[in-house]
What does this fold into?
Amino acid sequence: MTTPRTRGSHGFVRANGLSLAFLGLLVVALIGQAISGVARFNGQQLAEGAQQLSLWEYLRSSSFAVDVAENWQSEYLQFALYIVATTWLIQYGSSESKKPEDVGTGSEKDQKIGRYADPDSPSWARAGGLRTALYGRSLGAIMAFFFLGSMVAQSIAGRAAFNVELLDRRQDPFSWWGYVTSSDYWNRTFQNWQSEFLAVASMAVFAIYLRQRGSPESKLVGAPHQATAEDS
It folds into this structure.
């Protein structure tokens, strides 16, 4: 019989490969966005006879900040909604869904909290009361926090970038409230939201009929289409 390995038996990189890989891709994507973004920005400035920016100046600009923030807020919105929605909603046959009989928050025994906690359960799961209630909703809460934070950052940077354009055209700048109720702000926002909602819906449906061998995001290759949840 093979004894399961603990995290300590792996090297740091292997044990954290998924997060490290995506953080690395994030850095690469940000570098690519910065290089292509400053080229696009300077191209527009050249066409208008305005001052161009160095890469460092562009990285500190509101134009770069608003592009980053508006993408981040849509991603965190996607995860916040998905985490909460999958507590109560199901997609029959999808590995992205719980089984129909598991809808809801589950019992204390199912969730291993309070007196049902294991010896190695997190301390807040064992504590009971308010701490356990907060901890039991902490994942959705932190995603919502980053979504709201990114949305505020988008509104501040977006207003600054928008006002630069207005001043270049000798028009009056917008207040913060004026900008967050403007068509520019909500056009940027809805462009990102609709793509996230489409991606989630597509993944939920495609996971019914298609497989990715070895991935926890997929059902077993031989699992029937009607089987729901990743352990089907």
Observations:
- Residues 66-232 form one domain.
- The mean pLDDT is 89.
- The first helix runs from residue 12 to 15.
- The two ends are 24 Å apart (CA to CA).
